[in-house]
Amino acid sequence: MKNVLLTLIGLLFITKVLAHRTAVDIMDTEAAKVMALIKIGGETGKYINLQEGLKLLEEAAVSAKKIKNKHYREVAQASLAVEYAALDKVDEALKITLSLKDEHLYSTNLGKIASKLTQSNPKEADRLLLLAIDKIMSNKHKNEIPPVFAELSGKYVKLKNLEKANELLNKALKRVELLNKIPLIEKLQIYAEIGANLIAANRKEEAFALFKKSHQLSSKLENPFEKAAILVMIGGELAEKGEPTYALEILQEAYTTAKEIKFIKQKNDVISEIARNFSQAKDYERASAIALEISDSYYVVEGLIRTAKNQIKVKQYNAAFDLLQICINKTNEITDKQRKALVIAKIAAELATIDKQVQSAQLLKDAYKVLG
């Protein structure tokens, strides 16, 4: 739900964990092929064959080291570490993460790894979270500290340490109000991040007050892309946290606003995210219809994959399977090889979750071939 806005405020939107200060989509850089390969390897390891997946991740690791731009290289390596952690290769994930120089990537990655360990090794999870907090505190970009505090608070909730979670949330709330020189759109994004984690910490009333405040302040945004981006984020958070009626109202406002966006890539990106969040609010028919309106097949597929994923969550397997077949057909229209491979891997992952392993395995092989 945060993807579009992350791009807007200076974050890489390929995945939430890879946020940073740049308006460049990582899939438009020299790291694109590596990012797609990491996804293919991760999904192969999770759903098809662990050793095959690890072999692909090793290949990606070699390629990642060759990325010339330091920042893009670290983004790819951070993504690689997350995939290793998802395959229970925590030592490898930590080795990569602890080598990162970027405070934001370092801290958020440690949070992800800690989350993986909350049941099996809570002591280690706690140690990693303290390390993540210490690292982000050294970040000279003070605007990045409150949202990371909020994100890490959610890991403490999972660790059943509400006291520490609330301590971080209170610090995030205080710090965000001290950020007087940041654009309104960025402050609203931070509010949404904090609000989502307030709910996780059982502070629902405060969370909805913050969402309402963000919604009201969004009316001051004159740029339709900015306004639609923050509205879709708020709507997505509300949908995810069990407030579908309010979510749908805000998502409809986002959709109306998005129609005014002039730059076509921004428009497609936002509308794809709107479709995804309509499905998060359980309006699957509306979500699919909106996604299919988009002119760029890559964004169509991204919207439909998320809709299928949300249908799978409520056991609407046949409907999800039908959407995934549409996605497969649509990938034939995507000319960018890296993006094409990326979404094929995502489709494969969803098919595997509904016991279509044979088709999933073939798609992952196809995705690898697409990369060349």
TrEMBL record:
- Domain of life, per UniProt, equals Bacteria
InterPro entries per record: TPR-like_helical_dom_sf
Q: What is this protein called?
A: Tetratricopeptide repeat protein
Q: Which organism is it from?
A: Emticicia soli
